[in-house]
């Protein structure tokens, strides 16, 4: 009969745990020291005693020395100490063994350009005889990406809690250990990141930000952002590229700084990326004609193909606009600074100079890469008031030399537009006004001004010119296309109009003028807004594609988006295509980009629809919330006579 194995000493248990390359639990300790049967009972008591003394921590399946880290691990930099050194914690930590240890990052003052607070770093770990920092991390490399942050509702469950994600794709809840709850309270909206993926059962998560009451109107857009999977945090590499960007010089650019280009935007515009200018043409062969220039911020000077900024912009596809915030396609350093056409500041641009005859028909156009200086940043209301005879201190000096020539050119261009007869939908825009607390203060429908139409006409003209130039140069591009309505939608519209005693039958090839006739018939009737809405719903959805089939709504054979590369990736592609086609310097469309134009067009069409859905959903919820307190209770409503 074999002699029963004696219990190991506490030091022997600790040595075995530290030397093992695999997971160590009670079963592994018993096997290592030959402990079987009834002898497991005193072993269990020994391990419990070691746990009470703080020598080990964990569960019966996983034991380790408290604060024990592997020799190479991933750490997350959480801040700096009073000496300016980075401090970190393990990027992944099992809460069952206690709170995560604090880690001092070696040489971090010298490495501040390579890593920063919030970054994840692969590091070699050394033990320190220090109560404050039991470990020293020697960085090997900064990791490019970290766990994606998500949004959810925190639910308190006593010792631990759980998070219900708002993202529809995240079907499982995440468990939140007590040490990772960040003092969140039950029912709060929180931003969190996964610390363990939920492959089996629930995953675990750490709360990185508390966002308050999910019923708060300011949370509505945040919920929509995450519910639709819209990226709202820029990768560190993209932010670093944006911060390092510097304005280009004059080399290879035309000097447009003496031309009084002006920006005309909404009063609450967050960026200013397009400017306009016009003057009478002094060419004796073009009497009554005009020269119109549209200048657009040269985003391609900063966002180059294949860069971190470019990859993130393509992923986002476009900026997303909410009443209380914007999720930009590019970091603020680019969109609100370097590429914002600030009054009085030189800015690189791509511009098109267009020549029109007296009837508003374009005779010629030419693209150039230039350097401009905005003469003024105006609002639609300012510019319109000046034209209507009420200039202010800013618009007064601009009225004769700048604004009147612009309006004269526009009115000639409008004549040609009216002959072209694009779809004439003029749906009122609902605008939500917020107070200082981010709550809905009012919902208004701003008046539709001639100034709005002027800018739209100039932008459409520049977009057409871009498509025409690229076609002429046989350069691939992404078109903005809009198909004619389907037979099914036309039939549904016809059925609706019959209820209003209006005849609408498809005859031959559909033209926008057929819809305009219906809109004109009902313009001054009580059903005008309803008819406009139904006509809009009968239309196909516009999209991006490298193949051209025209734009039905605008009644144009070719059309591309050129005028807003700050907020639409499609426009950046067109800018690069023009640079390549016309030999305008660096930053042109690459062969690799051309090869995947089909994929890119589908990607940005999808992100546009995602943005529209999130924006519409947010506006609808805010309006419903605003009106909820203004609807009389059912008990007080009068019954019908």
Automatic annotation (TrEMBL):
<dbReference type="InterPro" id="IPR011805">
    <property type="entry name" value="RNase_R"/>
</dbReference>
<dbReference type="GO" id="GO:0008859">
    <property type="term" value="F:exoribonuclease II activity"/>
</dbReference>
<dbReference type="InterPro" id="IPR004476">
    <property type="entry name" value="RNase_II/RNase_R"/>
</dbReference>
<dbReference type="Pfam" id="PF00773">
    <property type="entry name" value="RNB"/>
</dbReference>
<protein>
    <recommendedName>
        <fullName>Ribonuclease R</fullName>
        <ecNumber>3.1.13.1</ecNumber>
    </recommendedName>
</protein>
<keyword id="KW-0540">Nuclease</keyword>
<dbReference type="Pfam" id="PF17876">
    <property type="entry name" value="CSD2"/>
</dbReference>
<dbReference type="GO" id="GO:0003723">
    <property type="term" value="F:RNA binding"/>
</dbReference>
<keyword id="KW-0694">RNA-binding</keyword>
<feature type="domain" description="RNB">
    <location>
        <begin position="253"/>
        <end position="584"/>
    </location>
</feature>
<dbReference type="GO" id="GO:0006402">
    <property type="term" value="P:mRNA catabolic process"/>
</dbReference>
<dbReference type="InterPro" id="IPR001900">
    <property type="entry name" value="RNase_II/R"/>
</dbReference>
<keyword id="KW-0963">Cytoplasm</keyword>
<dbReference type="InterPro" id="IPR040476">
    <property type="entry name" value="CSD2"/>
</dbReference>
<dbReference type="InterPro" id="IPR022966">
    <property type="entry name" value="RNase_II/R_CS"/>
</dbReference>
<dbReference type="InterPro" id="IPR050180">
    <property type="entry name" value="RNR_Ribonuclease"/>
</dbReference>
<keyword id="KW-0269">Exonuclease</keyword>
<keyword id="KW-0378">Hydrolase</keyword>
<dbReference type="InterPro" id="IPR012340">
    <property type="entry name" value="NA-bd_OB-fold"/>
</dbReference>
<comment type="function">
    <text>3'-5' exoribonuclease that releases 5'-nucleoside monophosphates and is involved in maturation of structured RNAs.</text>
</comment>
<comment type="similarity">
    <text>Belongs to the RNR ribonuclease family. RNase R subfamily.</text>
</comment>
<dbReference type="GO" id="GO:0005829">
    <property type="term" value="C:cytosol"/>
</dbReference>
